[in-house]
């Protein structure tokens, strides 16, 4: 089997600061987490920002500037900026930092969907910030809006105009058909790097049969023109990405989607998850790809063309 891409998503917008003391929040914390993850073997860093005081997910360029230039200077990792931001943000807000930074890669969510986080309220905890509980509670009426018009706008502004390539986030079978639609419109070109997303309430569940079926349909729709990677939320992270690695796919870890390293045990860092999956995939006989391997494989524009 060929080389494997490890992506690490450092902080995201799903978890809140009270859930783990290890979730990176400030610019220096996110930069440190990124350096460690890259050293441990992550070729791609998937990036969101947070307000350093409140820990809330943030779309502000100033907050991205707290860590993006450091990571660009001090690592060779491919920097992949989220265009999903947080489902509570407008698309204009979500795009502000990626448009300014023009990264080599950006995430692109392939459909409008529910994004329900309120089950996480079930666990009793001491909340550090006033915003956390209402934020989670409100997700029972939250629409994560990614219409075809939104998708086309991101493809044009970031892809055509700024040369970014995409991590196509597919939470459901329907999203693969939306991706095919954009391929048919000529707005994207292969190879397509497709992230299968499992375990978000609103998307497909973390059942192994779903992964097999996603691969079967992606083979049918894209033939040899795609690579797939897997992320799974919460405790399904390691089992499902191990399955992906055994099937020849790629993997994403990180505290954005799972705070644990084993059942009931918080990961102390993003790098701990990277190191764990690295050990697993190497035992499966896969070689971890370097950032430059990834640049060549995905046809990225190069780090020197990022405005960081
Ligand atoms: N945390 C993932 C389930 C994005 O940043 O565009 C969703 C995600 C979306 O990573
Ligand atoms: Zn993300």
Description of the structure:
With 308 residues, the protein is α/β, with parallel strands linked by helices. It has a single domain, classed as TIM Barrel (Alpha-Beta Barrel), CATH 3.20.20.70. 37% of the residues lie in helices and 18% in strands. The chain has eleven helices and 14 strands. Strands 1-2-5-6-9-10-11-12 form an eight-stranded parallel barrel, surrounded by eight helices. A two-stranded antiparallel ribbon has the order 3-4. A two-stranded antiparallel sheet has the order 7-8. Helix 4 runs parallel beside helix 6. It is globular. The protein starts with 5 loop residues before the first strand and ends in a 10-residue tail after the last helix. The model has no long low-confidence stretch (mean pLDDT 98). Bound molecules: (5S)-5-amino-3-OXO-hexanoic acid (KMH) and zinc ion.
């Amino acid at each position: 089997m060929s080389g494997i891409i490890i992506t690490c998503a450092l902080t995201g917008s799903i978890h809140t600061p009270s859930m783990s003391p290890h979730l990176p929040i400030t610019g220096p914390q996110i930069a440190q987490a990124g350096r460690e993850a890259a050293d441990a073997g992550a070729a791609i860093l998937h990036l969101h920002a947070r307000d350093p005081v409140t820990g809330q997910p943030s779309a502000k360029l100033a907050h991205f500037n707290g860590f993006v230039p450091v990571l660009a200077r001090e690592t060779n990792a491919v920097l992949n900026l989220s265009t999903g931001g947080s489902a509570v943000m407008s698309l204009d807000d979500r795009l502000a930092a990626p448009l300014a930074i023009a990264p080599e890669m950006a995430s692109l969510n392939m459909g409008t969907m529910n994004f329900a986080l309120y089950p996480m309220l079930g666990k009793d905890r001491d909340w550090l910030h006033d915003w956390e509980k209402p934020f989670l509670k409100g997700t029972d009426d939250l629409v994560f809006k990614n219409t075809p018009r939104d998708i086309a706008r991101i493809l044009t502004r970031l892809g055509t105009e700024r040369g970014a390539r995409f991590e196509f986030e597919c939470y459901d079978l329907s999203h693969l058909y939306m991706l095919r639609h954009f391929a048919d419109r000529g707005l994207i070109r292969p190879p397509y790097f497709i992230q299968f997303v499992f375990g978000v309430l609103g998307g497909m569940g973390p059942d192994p049969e779903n992964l097999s079926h996603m691969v079967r349909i992606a083979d049918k729709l894209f033939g040899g023109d795609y690579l797939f990677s897997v992320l799974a939320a919460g405790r399904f992270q390691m089992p499902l990405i191990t399955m992906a690695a055994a099937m020849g796919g790629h993997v994403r870890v990180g505290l954005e989607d799972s705070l644990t390293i084993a059942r009931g045990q918080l990961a102390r860092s993003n790098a701990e998850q990277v190191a764990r999956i690295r050990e697993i995939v190497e035992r499966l006989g896969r070689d971890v790809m370097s950032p430059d391997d990834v640049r060549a494989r995905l046809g990225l524009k190069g780090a020197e063309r990022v405005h960081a």
